[in-house]
Amino acid sequence: MTHPPLTPRRTLLVVLLLLSGLILAVLTSLSLGSVPVSMGSVAGALSGSNSVTAAEKAIILDIRLPRILLAIIVGSGLSIAGLVFQALLRNPLAEPYILGISSGGTVGAILAMTLSAGAGLFTVPLASFAGSAAVMGLVYTVAHRRGKLDTYTLLLAGVMIGAFFNALVLLVVAVINQEIRNAFLWLMGNLTGANPASVAIAGVPVVIASLALYSQAKGFNLIATGEETAMQLGINVGTLKKGSYLLASFITGMVVSVSGVVGFVGLIIPHICRMVFGPDHRLLFPASFLAGAIFLVLADLISRIALAPTEIPVGAVTAAIGAPLFVYLLRKA
Length: 333
Known about the structure:
ABC transporter involved in vitamin B12 uptake, BtuC
C-alpha cells in the first residue's frame, strides 16, 4: 500500500484529526458509566459552573477525569514503547508485553508493594523501572551474539523470560500473602487507582521520554532501510539503539507502575498507524501517541460499562482485542 509523501500540512491534519478523536473519546468517557451523566453536566463540571450538583462534580472530576488522564498516559506510553521496539527490531511482533518488559516491571512493583510497608511515593515506580530495565538487559544479552543482535532470538527470549517473570510474580503473591487482591488486579491491568499523584508520577516522565525518542525520528527512518545504510549516512546505530531501548524500558516501567500489566497496546496501535499513515516515524510518533491514548480511553470505557456496575480489568479488554491480532501477525511474519 502506497502512502502520500509526508508534508507539514499532512502531519498537522493527521494530528488534528487524532486530537479531535481523543477529545471526543474523553468527553464520551466522562459522560458514560454505571451512573450516566449528561454532556451538559460534563461541560459544566469542566468549566466550573455552579449549575452542576456536587455528586456529579465528584463523579466527573474526582473519579472519572483522573482515570481518563491515566488511560491517556498509559495508552500513549505503551504505544510509543511498542513503536520503538518494532522500529529497532524491524519486527511488527515486538512490544513491551511480548518482550517480557512489562513482566519485569510487574515483579519490581509487586515486590516494592509487598515488602516496603509505608514506602515513599516514588518507591513503586522506581522498582518497576528497575524490573523493566533488568528484563530488557537480560533479553538483550541473550539475543546479542557474535557482535550482532538477532531480532528473532530477542523476540523468543522476551516471550520465555516474560513467562518466567510471570511465574515469579505468582510465587511472590503466594508466599507473601499481603495486598493479594491488589496484586492480582495488577496482573490483569487496571486503572482504578488513578489519582492526581499517579497521573503526575507517570505523565511527566512518559511525555519527556516520548519527546526524546521523537527527536530521533529521522534516525529510526534510516535504521528501517538497514543498519549498514544508516551507519554510512552518519547515524551512530549502536548509541541510538541502546539509548532507545533504555528510554522505551523506562516508559514501560513508569506505565506498569501505575496501571499494572496492560498488554497488546504497543502491538496493535503502532501496527495500525503504520498501515494507515505510512512508515515515516516523523508522523508515526505523534500518531501512535494519540491513537494509543484514544484506544485505551475507549478500552477503559468498555471495561466500566460492559458489565456495569461490575468492572472488567482493562487489561482483559486489550487482550481480547490484541491476542487475535498477535496470532494474525505471527502467521504473517
